[in-house]
Design goal:
The chain is mainly β and 183 residues long. It contains two helices and 13 strands; from the N terminus they run E-E-E-E-E-E-E-E-H-E-E-E-E-E-H. A seven-stranded mixed β-sheet has the order 4-5-13-10-9-3-6. Strand 11 (133-140) and strand 12 form a beta hairpin. The chain starts with 5 loop residues before the first strand and ends in a 6-residue tail after the last helix.
């Protein structure tokens, strides 16, 4: 935090000019989703808990999901009773087609890996080691809720979500594009 941030008698206030605020939300309206069993390895960067590449078996990789604008929500919550974290990523897919239905049906059960970029910067990885599971799936035909509300969660994780890649956004997106599969 900048040293020039003001502490006022009425409380703490961030000055826009002096203290940069994080931007809420997620970028790109894209979520990258893969089955954990298809991941062969992760390449760690020099920074702890940050990974610069992922290796898949032949024909395996991420599915790139285009999701409804401004519906992606990521949370990372500590549970003091279990001394563990719950990682969660939710979003809406504005599609009620049989293709969307069948794809989502296939995510029920297997451990998944999910990557999405926060507007604050980092690409978050859910389920890197022990997988994230489908924790919410609700289809609706009602107004603004049309489509599927989807969430994946990793529970009882021993640490906060790791990050993916340590370079600029365009480089990360280009790398992820090479990992997308259509099978």
């Amino acid at each position: 935090m900048a040293e020039n941030c003001s502490v006022l008698t009425t409380g703490y206030k961030l000055s826009v000019a002096e203290c940069a605020q994080l931007t809420a939300g997620m970028w790109h309206n894209r979520v990258y989703l893969a089955s954990l069993r298809e991941v062969l390895s992760w390449v760690a960067s020099a920074t702890p808990n940050q990974y610069e590449d992922v290796t898949f078996g032949a024909g395996d990789g991420f599915f790139e999901l285009v999701v409804e604008k401004d519906t992606i929500v990521w949370t990372d919550e500590y549970d003091k009773a279990t001394k563990s974290f719950t990682h969660r990523l939710g979003f809406r897919i504005p599609d009620l087609s049989i293709t969307a239905r069948n794809f989502l049906q296939n995510t029920k059960g297997p451990d998944m890996v999910v990557i999405a970029q926060m507007k604050a910067g980092p690409f978050q990885i859910l389920g890197k080691d022990s997988g994230a599971v489908l924790s919410e799936l609700k289809g609706s035909s009602e107004g603004e809720e049309v489509g599927y509300a989807v969430a994946f969660a990793g529970e009882n994780m021993d640490q906060l979500c790791p990050h993916f890649l340590d370079t600029d956004t365009n480089t990360t997106l280009a790398l992820l594009a090479t990992k997308i599969t259509t099978t």
